[in-house]
Amino acid sequence: MKLMHHRLEGSSTASTRGRAFTGSRCLLVASSTLGRLLAGALVWFCLSVCGLRWANADDVSVPLPMQVQLLTTVADYDKGFAERAKGKVKIVLLTSKNADSARAATQVQGALGRLAQIGGQPHEESTVRYESGAALAGLCKNNGISVVFLMPGFQGEIADIKRSLDGVNVLSVATIGSYVQQGIVLGFDVISGKPKLLVNLAQARAQKVAFKAELLKMVKVIE
Prior knowledge:
This protein is 51% helix and 17% strand. It is of the alpha/beta class. The chain has a single domain (2-222), classed as Response regulator (Rossmann fold, 3-Layer(aba) Sandwich), CATH 3.40.50. It has a seven-stranded mixed β-sheet with strand order 2-1-3-4-5-6-7. The N and C termini lie far apart (57 Å). Residues 1-29 and 41-58 have low confidence and may be disordered.
């Protein structure tokens, strides 16, 4: 009986170590993927400086297809992503009256359409014209929205959106880096010539979004 007990202990320890190793390996893979994507975004940025432009709004510093790829990787670091999605990731592409906004949404939707899953789950997108922060908050609550992806053209509405999404369990994402400083949870920008992920940590907490420490080590955190 003692021998069996020791064997079981050994088996349990090995299993625990195996799970820990698997978890660590997954994080390493995700970290490596994020690094490669950021490196790829840098190449796109350099090409644009050399005169090759993409069909994005002028204020979008990181190409929209690359933003979509980065978002899918970030989903692996969002502790509540799966619970928020509840089997299907619902993404709102939020547009303004700006013509660039609608064009950006079309491009983002095309990039998302090439992905089978986000965070290990199927997804669906809808393009929504912004009316008010209150209407957006109601849409998120009533329809179980996982992600609100803001297109360009919201310079004057970010404060209202931030205020309205306080307490709403949703990940807000900005195509424009400056929106993160104003109150959007996640965004993309080029800093010192390099693509960078931006996270507004205070707003993330306000919207019940918790990122793993591994991600926060790789991004620019805005308190």
